[in-house]
Amino acid sequence: MPTLILVRHGRSTANTAGVLAGRTPGVALDERGTEQAAALPGRLASLPLVAAVSSPLQRCRETLRPLLDARPELPLHTEERISECDYGDWAGRKLAELTDEPLMTVVQQHPSAAAFPGGESMRAMQARAVDAVREWNARIEAEHGESAVYLMCSHGDIIKSLVADALGMHLDLFQRVHADPCSVTAIRYTRLRPFLLRLGDTGDLAPLAPREPSPDETKAAGTGADAAVGGGAGAP
Fold it and tell me: For the whole model, what pTM was predicted?
């Protein structure tokens, strides 16, 4: 199955202002975020991406713009299900103010029980994102083969919840995961289980490019083994 490259959008004006942006319109990349986005094509240059899938929100579209300019042949798809969590009445509020809300403790310690007033639950957020990835995996594999690499540009909580799913972690543990703005998280999906290859990476991504399997790996694949003992999913 394909390898998914998850890119968190670059740093936004809401990030620097300490505001919970949610789905508030007009939240753009700040100066640093624009620089991060400009560096993205170089960081991804070694990866043979077959498609880019984006949250519909402005900060994600701005993050992908330099990459799409550098690769005009790369198809872009918009996916509503990887949009930011719907924080409802909390959207647009200062994070410093929200720390005093009783619900914030639930969000941090027991997120599977958290539902935002006027918004959605964190369970629903994870479920829709996981469903989107599973469906895109199947589509990408059908169109480009099981070694295909594709990209999704999304948001911090979405990426963290997808990592939790890939690791078989309960949603209540997902706050232990962190992904910086414009960082790359890579998950290679297989028939039996996903493998987390990168988490919040801001460096060289060349090792994520598909490679020819060694004779030993080819033999192991023929026996139905899912990963080499002591390594796994692309380990050298």
Answer: 0.85
